[in-house]
Write a structure and sequence with these properties.
There is one protein chain. The longest helix is centred in the middle third of the chain and has 4 residues, at 49-52. The chain is globular. The protein has one domain (3-97): Jelly Rolls (Sandwich), CATH 2.60.120. Strands 1, 2, 3 and 4 form a four-stranded antiparallel sheet that branches. With 99 residues, the chain is mainly beta. The protein is built from one helix and four strands; from the N terminus they run E-E-E-H-E.
Length: 99
């Protein structure tokens, strides 16, 4: 999906996650193009297919499998990319489908 298509957040559906330690995979053939952080959040896993295609694909600096080492992403932040999976240590997020 191109950002120039003018698709509004939520127009193609969204997924709200409020529970920690649950791995969320996007349905086959779909991905989330934005993840809105509702409350301060720590990610265990945040798989961004856009980052995998880049030269710096060896790690995801926004997620860490250890809760104490994971960065706190402040409430109000919107992460853009091509996300195929995520898992929270803590927090609440809304993941918006892009396709």
């Amino acid at each position: 999906m191109s950002f120039t298509q003018g698709i509004a957040l939520g127009q193609l559906g969204c997924f709200v996650e409020t529970t920690a330690n649950v791995l969320n995979n996007a349905p086959t053939g779909r991905e989330w193009f934005a993840v809105q952080v509702v409350t301060d959040t720590k990610f265990h896993t945040l798989t961004n297919a856009s980052a995998i295609a880049s030269a710096n694909s060896s790690s995801d600096s926004l997620a860490n499998t250890t809760a104490g080492s994971a960065l706190v992403i402040p409430a109000g932040t919107i992460l853009y990319g091509t996300f195929t999976a995520f898992q929270l240590h803590s927090g609440i997020v809304i993941a918006y489908f892009g396709s």
